[in-house]
Structure formats: structure tokens, C-alpha cells
């Protein structure tokens, strides 16, 4: 990641800090390693807010950005020879400080040691991740009463940093869009490879392993646990893969995403296990696709997320009426949310460094140029209704919001 991009982000967030207070500070911490079992840890993934401003996978490090100081502080302890022997040398905190236009300070990262660098601040934006050092420092401050903190000139107003950072991260830069596009294309390529081998007799778990191996072959990681759900399992929104064998005539629901340079894709497809849909299956899939097209056509800068959702809702309602499942006017069904039994989730979410990226989308959220969001209508039947067997259909693409229209990425 280019140094100028990181420096620009830091200056942008400093301006936001100044709007809060001249004594406002943002405390970013690298993600701690998490124990899996005994002395083994889970695969390491950097805290995404930390990465956004540093482009670094460094461990055991704090970055302090102050409203009234140009240079951010990079705080990191000395790494012992024993640590280097067993774990390898950490990325150089001195080099990180240089990269982001900051100053490196060797620090043991104990709470009392970090307080020294918070002196004079009145507002602290901290991490909501409870195991992070940023969060531990905030909790330590919260144990003191306000008058004590004011007397020692330590922050007495504490705010979740996502409120500060989310508006910035929601609007994607060109390099971010390129990384998401790469992740999407790797995901789509993997689905194409699956279509070449898909057949009855495979298990959900075999398909999951195949897809995730395709990600790795293309130089990507796995953005989230892959959902592979066949037949009635697809009616469970977050189905956990099993050894269930795919049957002739079933449909297969996939929800998957590659991760490239820390940026995620999130794609869903519904495929015929035997190579072709039945007439009823084709009608249902076309109905869901029609809902997706309507939502994408609606989405553009200035439109609310609620209107984006409504465009898909109306098409799903039309489909359910055509199938004879719901009765009444579209307006009545929409107002009473009768269709939610069959389309229970929202139309999408923000996408970026996190699969469910920072910056939640509410009904009155206004879509803005260069936001990246998912568009994923679906229809689900948990039990047989009329001539429809239990099933689930979801079609999801990632879209880039534009001034006059939105484009599907990939």
C-alpha cells in the first residue's frame, strides 16, 4: 500500500478528531493473537481499523493519532532474541513509523506506560474489540472517576472508534475497489471451476474444501466460513457444511468469498446439482434474479438503503403472489411484512476490509458514490408448501455505487 494513501487517511481522521476536540485521540491497536487450544493460536489476521491506517500486519503495537499533532506515535516493545527464535522477527516498528509519517517510541505497552502518551487528551476513541490493548486501556480509564482523570489530564470521554472511522472506510478509494474486484473475480473463477465437476454424489463438505482450495490456488485467503447448503439445508441461512450427499434434482446454495490483500468478496449462487433446473426451480431462480436486478437498477448515490431494499421486496412479493402463497395487494403485504417469512434477511451490507464492513446500513442511510455494498435477495421454504419442497435460493453480487447507476463488480 502506498505511503501517501496511509498519510492521507491519517490527515483525514485528524480533521475528524479536531471536530470532536483539540484533545481528541484515536488509539489503534494491532490484533492480539488468539489461543485456539493450549499453546496453539488461530491464524493471525490484523485488526482492520489498524490495517486501514498502517497497511501493516505488525503484532503487539499501538498507533496513537492526536488531533493536535501532525505525527502519529507508534508504540511497540523490544523483541527479545528468544521471541525472534520461536516466532520470527516482527515487522520493524521504526519502518512502520516512517511509512505513516510518524514517530517510533519503544514501550512495554503496559497500561500505565501508555497513559504517559495520553496526557493532555480529553477524548479517547478506542477499539470495541474486547481483547485488544486499546480496549483494555479504555476499561482501565473507565474504572477511574471523571474528576480524577481530569486532574491527571487523561481522557475522560471514551467513544467507540467505529463511529469515527466508519464514514471514512465506507467510501472506497481506487486501490480498495481494485482489491475487492480481484477478490470477487477469484471467487467467481472458483465457482466456474466447481460447475465443471458438480454432480450428485458429492458432499457439501467436499464442495466447500474444493472451493476454498481454489481460492488458495489463486493466491487468496478465505474471507468467511463458506456456506454450502443442498436441498432443504439451504433454508437455513447460515447452514454449517455437513457430510450430506447431494441428490439428483436438488439445488445447491453457495455463499462464499475470497479475501485478497485483506479485502473481501461476498458472492452467493444457487446451482442445479444435476446440471439443469426443473421448470419450478427455474421460475423461482428467475424471480429472485429479477428482484436483484430491480434493486441494482434502483441503487445509486442519493437513494436511501430503504428504497434499495424495497425494490427487491416488491419483486419477491410479486413472485409469492404469482405462486399463490401470499394474497392481498403488494402494499398490504409490504406494510405487514408478510413476505418476511420467505425473505427474512436484508438486501445487503457494506463490504470492504471486513465481510460485514464497518458502517451499518439502516433504512434511512443514504447511499453515496464509491460505497461498496452487497445485493443478495433470496427466497426460502423451510417446509413443503403447495408443490414447493423445502429449499433456499440466494443470488448475491457486490456492487459499486455510482452517481447515476451502480455497477456489479467482477
Description:
- The protein is an alpha+beta fold.
- The protein has two domains: about 5-170, Creatine Amidinohydrolase, Chain A, domain 1, CATH 3.40.350; about 170-410, Creatine Amidinohydrolase (Alpha-Beta Complex), CATH 3.90.230.10.
- The protein is built from 13 helices and 19 strands.
- It has a six-stranded mixed beta sheet, with helices on both faces.
- The longest helix is centred in the middle third of the chain and has 24 residues, at about 175-195.
- The radius of gyration is 24 Å and the shape is globular.
The gist of it:
The protein is α+β, with helices and mostly antiparallel strands and 410 residues long. The chain folds into 2 domains: 3-169, Creatine Amidinohydrolase, Chain A, domain 1, CATH 3.40.350; 171-408, Creatine Amidinohydrolase (Alpha-Beta Complex), CATH 3.90.230.10. It has helices at 3-20, 48-54, 81-87, 93-99, 111-115, 133-142, 146-151, 162-170, 174-197, 204-217, 279-298, 305-322, 330-336; strands at residues 24-29, 35-37, 40-41, 62-66, 73-76, 103-106, 123-126, 157-160, 221-222, 227-230, 251-256, 258-260, 263-264, 267-272, 372-375, 378-381, 391-394, 397-400, 407-408.
